[in-house]
Amino acid sequence: MLKLSLREIKQIAIVVRATLLPEIEKLFNSRATAPKLLTIKEAAEILSVHPNTVYKLIADGQLPAHKVRRITRIYSDDLNNVFQKEESQCQQ
């Protein structure tokens, strides 16, 4: 059986932390930049409309949506694009 002193264990922990910490930070940063998928209800709340209106936007091709199994999901970036497009049309 390998016996290590407390000092040796602390040194190993420092090396492991220094090695793994950058990799862990990369993992968390990549998750933070990943696009968020929204449900129909969440998209409706953001747009302040009824969920049926969101379904109509999807059916008309104005809002891109993706099926994940039987559930429809909307990328938050796509929702922002539609929102900005509608906002710019209202200003003109």
Layout of secondary structure:
Elements: H1 6-33, E1 37-38, H2 40-47, H3 51-59, E2 66-68, E3 71-75, H4 76-91
Antiparallel strand pairs: 1-3, 2-3
Give an overview of the whole structure.
The chain has 92 residues and is mainly alpha-helical. The protein folds into two domains: 34 residues; 55 residues, Multidrug-efflux Transporter Regulator, Chain: A, Domain 2 (Orthogonal Bundle). Helices cover 66% and strands 11% of the residues. Strands 1-3-2 form a three-stranded antiparallel sheet. The chain is elongated, with a radius of gyration of 23 Å.
Quick structural gist:
With 92 residues, this protein is mainly alpha-helical. The chain is built from 4 helices and 3 strands.
Can you write the helix and strand succession as a string?
HEHHEEH
Shape: elongated
How many domains would you count in the coordinates? Answer: 2
Compute the average pLDDT.
Answer: 83
What is the CATH level 1 assignment of the largest domain? Mainly Alpha
How many β-strand runs?
3
Instruction: State which percent range the strand residues make up.
Output: 5-15%
In CATH terms, what is the architecture of the largest domain? Orthogonal Bundle
Strand order of the largest sheet: 1-3-2
Enter the CATH topology name of the largest domain.
Multidrug-efflux Transporter Regulator, Chain: A, Domain 2
Sheet having the most strands: 3 strands, antiparallel
Regions with little confidence, pLDDT below 50 for 5+ residues: none
Radius of gyration: 23 Å
Helix content: 55-70%
Oligomer: single chain
The total of helices stands at 4
Give the termini separation: 77 Å
Given helix and strand content, the structural type is mainly alpha
